[in-house]
Specification:
372 residues; alpha/beta; eight-stranded mixed sheet; six-stranded parallel sheet; 19% strand; globular
């Protein structure tokens, strides 16, 4: 069976898509991925782990528009045209697998044109994600979602709250495939750092508690913070801001392959998120699964599904979204190495028993077995 995926992010920075495509390829499926390379950073065609990658760059008209929301309809069009060209010339796919709402329009058109199967893989609930910044666009996203989803044959959701959300929208099967990580370490190992070390690897934005977290750690004794992330959000500002303190190590942008290695160098992982976004309340973040496979406790914001999961598994501490609460949690783990180790061992055991990619990919493969 041949599968065409459509993705609106660079393939090399989306580990979920890479993992899913590789799982299918390893199982004998032929997989190609059409990618929106918005910045034109990658060559037009590539092969990674046996997966054919086709990068589409912005047209002149797309470049003239002020933002990606306005570029989206043009992206849908060029993705559809490229997919049709592939089907007719070199890759007669049986399934189109659309990652997120900003690819689904192309998938619906392809299904209607070619009579193929359509899988919708929801990494985000798009309307929730943009609701606070673009309320009108959010309403349009919810409208388009309800319109397009009627055409899908199967929905894949990233966690249980997402699954429940989509089960209310569609009468087709909805399967959970979480963003769990491979068990790259055989056993739990305690941190080796002499100084209590916190790690944050991810986007730096004000709703991720920046620059507050830098000030909190910067003013603490016997604590160090390792920071890394993509050059988005307020990355440049935080790169300069971190220079205020000697105990902040700013690594910049790191290769994806180094994320788990650096995560394991820490004593605990930070994941502090503002709760104004409805999606934030119901999503399980990649950082949580990375912390688990590394055997490190997480410090995470209360009032979220991810925090409920942390409390249930006893694999970290939950905090209020303010400096004092975060500071107390850091000090608690710094001054109680036995507690830090206990939570880290719980995290690793949870990954080993349940929250790992080997288990989750079986759910993905079952989806494809059912739609053959």
């Amino acid at each position: 069976m041949k599968v065409l995926m459509i993705l609106s992010n660079p393939f090399t920075v989306d580990p979920r898509v890479h993992n899913e495509a590789k799982a299918l390829t390893d199982e004998g499926y032929e997989v190609a991925v059409i990618v929106w390379d918005r910045r034109g950073e990658h060559k037009q065609e590539d092969v990674i782990d046996g997966i054919r990658i086709i990068n589409l760059h912005n047209t002149s008209l797309m470049k003239s528009l002020p933002n990606d929301l306005l570029r989206n309809p043009l992206w849908w069009r060029i993705a559809y045209k490229k997919a049709l060209e592939l089907y007719q010339k070199s890759f007669k796919f049986d399934v189109v697998h659309c990652h997120d709402l900003d690819t689904l329009s192309s998938g619906v058109r392809l299904k209607k044109k070619l009579g193929i199967k359509l899988v919708f893989d929801a990494h985000e609930i798009f309307g929730y994600m943009i609701e606070s910044q673009h309320p009108l666009a959010s309403k349009a996203a919810f409208y388009l979602e309800k319109r397009f989803i009627k055409n899908v044959d199967h929905v894949i959701a990233i966690d249980d709250p997402f699954k429940e959300y989509y089960e209310k929208l569609v009468d087709k099967p909805v399967t959970r495939v979480m963003n769990c990580k491979d068990l790259v370490f055989d056993r739990y190992e305690p941190p080796k750092s002499k100084t209590f070390t916190l790690v944050y690897i991810g986007i730096m934005t004000r709703w991720r508690f920046f620059p507050e977290i830098i000030d909190v750690v910067g003013e603490l004794k016997e604590v160090k913070l390792i920071l890394a992330g993509k050059k988005e959000g307020i990355y440049r500002e935080m790169e300069e801001y971190a220079k205020k303190y000697n105990n902040i190590e700013f690594l910049g942008t790191i290769p994806t392959k180094d994320i788990l290695k650096i995560t394991r160098e820490g004593d605990a992982i930070l994941l502090l998120v503002g709760k104004t976004n409805k999606q934030t309340k119901i999503v399980v973040f990649n950082k949580q699964f990375e912390a688990m496979v590394c055997g490190r406790p997480i410090i995470i914001t209360k009032g979220t599904y991810a925090a409920e999961m942390t409390e249930k598994l006893k694999c970290g501490l939950t905090v209020e979204y303010n400096k004092e609460s975060v500071k107390e949690a850091i000090i608690k783990l710094r001054d109680n190495p036995d507690l830090c180790e206990e939570l880290g061992q719980n995290a690793f055991n949870a990954a080993k028993k349940q929250y790992n990619w080997e288990k989750e990919k079986k759910n993905l493969l079952k989806v494809y077995e059912e739609i053959k």
